[in-house]
Predict the 3D structure of the following.
Amino acid sequence: MLALRKPAPAPGLVLQDVPEPGDPGAGEVLVEVAAAGICGSDLHLDDWTPGYEFMAGAMPVTLGHEFSGRVAATGAGVQGLMRGQLVAVYPILHCRQCVNCVRGDTALCLNRRALGVTLDGGFARYVRAPAANCIPLAQGLDPALGALVEPLCIGDHANIVGEVKLGETVVVLGPGTIGQAAARVARWRGASRVVVVGLRDEARLATARAVGATHSIDLASTPDVLARFRALTGLDHADVVIEATGHPASIADGQRLLKKGGILVVAGIHAAPASLDLVTLVRQRQQVRGAHSSLRPSWDVMAQRIGDEPESVRAMVSLSLPLSEALEGFARCRKRDVSKVILQP
Ligand SMILES: [Zn+2]
Ligand SMILES: [Zn+2]
């Protein structure tokens, strides 16, 4: 089968023929991938920017960690999943042996592995996954929307870490898929204002508005983000800022926007250190928190939400291409005139 792989710890990806994964083992499912999204981290992996060195030992590896597909076969002991059923796949596998897993805190597993990162993922026709990681999707759901469960769960997790509450004002820095997802989820959680900020990124800012952002700011026309925020909202500061840019300069913007006692959630992967005004941090009792990946409970909630309200997220998908045109899909993502690009194996 055709697979999009990271062959070595150096720039570049390859499309190549690889053997099919074979029959699922006990407790496993063979998933026939229907739709797999290209993530910003896949672009970083293609470029081989710093921050992904931990993957080197797993290469060559098939990428693709945001995918939906149909159950093609089930291994011994698998219950509750039927052949042909559409599922989203939680890509994280916890070791269940490290000190944190043994304590029951699998979110902090020290040896986590992930489909599409350190285990073969969804940029291929078939992938093997633990049955427990397969979340049934609504019957008849567009598989491309099923592939959005993963980024929406990342957005949900950032909202959970930021403790976003009813009636709050949330600023999301970065209008990419994670920013769009964080904005959508903030609205689901009852935030009354969600302001998404980008730089020369009008197409993706428009998508953010289409999925629920109440306001957007393009820094190209108004570099003073705080002044623009105040003009748009009539508020002095935001309750929560979720950073999803990966650009260290955005951290200073995020801190300036934050109220006394507010929470700045850093969700981007930054290739360089950022500076923080620690005097303000201390005196304003601001909190800076890292949010990474997602926890399993978010998956059931987001799968249900997408099933109930597919139109509320449809604008996030810009384009679907066959897997054979994966490299074209990557090129489109870099132009930032599209939001999520889906590959169909
Ligand atoms: Zn992703
Ligand atoms: Zn562990």
Q: What stands out?
A: The longest strand covers residues 28-37.
